[in-house]
Each structure stands twice: as structure tokens, then as C-alpha cells.
Amino acid sequence: MDPSLSLTDWQKNSWLRAHTPSAREIADLFEVADRDLAACETPDLHIDWKFTIAYNAALRLAGAALAAAGFEAERAAHHYRVIQSLELTIGWPPEDIQLLDTFRKKRNTSGYVMTDTVSSEEAEEIRRLARRLRSDVRAWLVARHPRLAAGLSR
């Protein structure tokens, strides 16, 4: 992604559309992410599912940040845009965004093409990344959008 582009530029390119979020919407996205973060720790759950569930949590959290910034991704390349927007919303480090995007590609393979492509280390790494993203998005919301953060749990 071109770092010189803003979210408004993305909207002009038809990658995003304007969105007016509510505190309930943001809280709901966090509740889904929290549910998924708990579920991905289920003992004896297949590694592919642990990975996918943790990825889904991260995607919801990135989506919450994008919504709070006043946008939502268009359908084309939706996951890619939501992940890449983290640099422009919460200022997440490019290396973390790249890792999450690598996991996006891996999730497509494990979810649609073949099984047993995810290692337990990768499943743990995406879980840790999603937990850190939760903390970072929450802190950003509290600092920048306190009205939208009002219904969030710790």
C-alpha cells in the first residue's frame, strides 16, 4: 500500500465507503473478537481452526478501527483492505501488518484449498498478534474515540 494515501484517498479509489459507527457496533465487534480469542484456545481443536478463529478475531478488530475512523471496506479485496488500513487508523507497525497479511494468505489456503498447512507455532503467533491488536485498538479507541469506546470491556 502507498503510505502517502489517506483513508479519504482510499474512498476516492472506491476501496472504502463512508460509515457512521455506533458504540454498540464497536462493542459487538469486540465481543465477537473476544469470543473468537477464547475459542481459539479450545483444547483438541484442529490447528487449522485455531488459526482461522484467531485470524477472524484480528479481522474484526481491524474492522472496528476502520469503522471508528468513519469507513468500511468495499467487498473487493475486503480482508486485504481492512488489514492494510491498520497503518492509517491505529498506526500499527508495517511489519505487524505484513505478518497479518501473510496470515491472511495462509488462512485462504488452509480454509479453501488444503488442510494441515498451519503449524502450531503459526496458530500461536496469530493468537498473540490478535491479542496485541485487541489491546492496541482498544487503547486507540479510548484515546481518539472515547464515545465509541464507552461500551468496551477491558
Describe the structure.
By secondary structure, the chain is mainly α. It has one domain (7-149): Four Helix Bundle (Hemerythrin (Met), subunit A), CATH 1.20.120.330. The chain is built from 8 helices and 2 strands, in the order αβααβααααα. Strands 1-2 form a two-stranded antiparallel sheet. α3 packs across α6 and α3 (47-68) runs parallel beside α7. The protein is globular. It starts with 6 loop residues before the first helix and ends in a 5-residue tail after the last helix. The mean pLDDT is 92.
What labels describe this entry?
154 residues; mainly alpha; Four Helix Bundle (Hemerythrin (Met), subunit A); two-stranded antiparallel sheet; 8 helices; 2 strands
Secondary structure: number of strands: 2
CATH class, anyone? Mainly Alpha
Low-confidence stretches: none
Elements, N to C (H/E):
HEHHEHHHHH
CATH architectural type = Up-down Bundle
Distance N to C terminus: 32 Å
Major sheet summary line = 2 strands, antiparallel
Range of helix content: 55-70%
Domains counted in the coordinates: how many? Answer: 1
Compose a concise summary of this entry:
Helix content is 68%, strand content 4%. It is mainly α and 154 residues long.
